[in-house]
Design goal:
This protein is an all-alpha fold. Helices cover 50% and strands 3% of the residues. Helix 2 packs antiparallel against helix 3. 32% of the residues are buried.
């Protein structure tokens, strides 16, 4: 059974400091970024970098492994005939929309790392609701 929610950290605001601190750190980092932007304490390139950092989430490998365990039994080459593929059971149109074709025609034909790279983009676009049941099971959403 997958283990509970180990959320990622916001990359530029939390590199190094945020590793392993999970969702609480992410929430604080995003709140701090929003506060600084709202207060006008960041301008120009700083504001653009902070905005990008708030949307660039890096998820720990263990979270992707837990999600894959739930979605496909941990089989990164899964092709079960249900229309979803790979360890994270990604629908081909979503794979294409998130840039997966730069790696392979379908998720099950891509490496684990390539699948998680595309999954980071899916997460940015759709949030954890892209994997509603399993994200809930591993504690990424309520």
């Amino acid at each position: 059974m997958p283990t509970g929610g180990r959320a990622g950290f916001t990359a530029a605001l939390g590199a190094g400091l945020g590793a392993g601190l999970g969702a609480a750190f992410t929430a604080v980092a995003v709140a701090l970024g929003v506060l600084l932007l709202t207060a006008g304490l960041l301008s120009g390139a700083q504001a653009r970098a902070a905005t990008a950092a708030m949307t660039a989430t890096v998820v720990a490998d263990e979270v992707w492994d837990d999600l894959a365990e739930c979605e496909s039994g941990g089989d990164w080459r899964a092709d079960t005939g249900n229309g979803y593929f790979g360890g994270l059971q990604i629908w081909p149109p979503t794979w294409e929309e998130a840039g997966g074709l730069r790696f392979a025609t379908r998720p099950d034909r891509a490496s684990r790392r390539q699948q998680t790279t595309v999954a980071e983009e899916i997460l940015r676009m759709q949030g954890w609701e892209a994997w509603p049941a399993c994200a809930r099971e591993i504690g990424m959403i309520d």
